[in-house]
Amino acid sequence: MGFRSSAGAFLIAALSGCASFDGYSLVPGKSTAADVQAVMGRPYERFAAAGGDSVWFYPRQPLGRRNFAVTVSADGVVRSIEQRLTEENLRKLVAGTTTAQQTRELLGPPWLVTRNDRMQRNVWSYKMYNLVDIEHTLHVQFSDDGLVREVLMLRDWPDEDFFFPRFR
Questions:
Q1: In the 3-class helix/strand/coil scheme, how is 51-111 assigned residue by residue?
Q2: Across the strands, what pairs with 99?
Q3: Is CATH 2.40.128 the classification given to domain 85-168?
Q4: Cα–Cα distance measured from residue 51 to residue 111, given in angstroms and rounded to the nearest whole number
Q5: In Å, how far from its chain's centre is CA 25?
Q6: What residues does 45 pair with on adjacent strands?
Q7: Nearest CA-CA partner of 108 in 65, 69, 152
Q8: What does DSSP assign to residue 134?
Q9: How far is C-alpha 135 from the chain's CA centre?
């Protein structure tokens, strides 16, 4: 067996043991917290929610462009599974009002956190798709008081080779 076929066999074997990307096999109202972990793995982050529920986040960034949130009831049953990086959720962010904690609970963990010292802002970046599945990067800027100040969704452009092909 050659190198390529060995590497391919290894890759297939490795991926078959990976957790589910989006939890598509989980059924709200029937699946349990144990089912979630068996299918999706350990959550990256958990938040307490109203009524004793908890929200488990499964970010798939930066290579993926989704943050999945699984809401689990106090009795351990899945209430919902949703992709949180949506334009609908972005409209819930209100400059000067929405806090960093509220943003984190709504969108999930960012894939990149940076500091813009000149503007004295922390910037959380998320990879996501717009309504028609075009790749974008979302930047949510927070002032030092922890409030959203600006939300920018910028188109990710193709590699420079797309515009300036190199001659080989």
A1: HHCEEEEEECCCCCCCEEEEEECCCCEEEEEEECCCHHHHCCCCCCCCEHHHHHHHHCCCC
A2: 147
A3: no
A4: 29
A5: 19
A6: 57
A7: 69
A8: -
A9: 13
Interval 34-60: pLDDT, tens: 999 999 999 999 999 999 999 999 999
Alpha carbons 140 and 138: distance in angstroms, whole number: 7
Q: Where are the domains of the chain?
A: 21-83, 85-168
> Hey, what amino acid is at 108?
G
The token duo for 110 is 């960012």
| Residue showing tokens 């050659």 | 2
| Rounded Cα gap, residues 48 and 69, in angstroms | 12
- Its pTM stands at 0.81
In sign, the C-alpha dihedral spanning 145, 146, 151, 153 is: positive
Residue-wise DSSP of 3-60: HHHHHHHHHHHHHHTSPPSS-TT--TTT-BHHHHHHHH-S-SEEEE-GGG-EEEEEE-
Tens digit of each residue's pLDDT (9 = 90 or more) over 72-111: 999 999 999 999 999 999 999 999 999 999 999 999 999 9
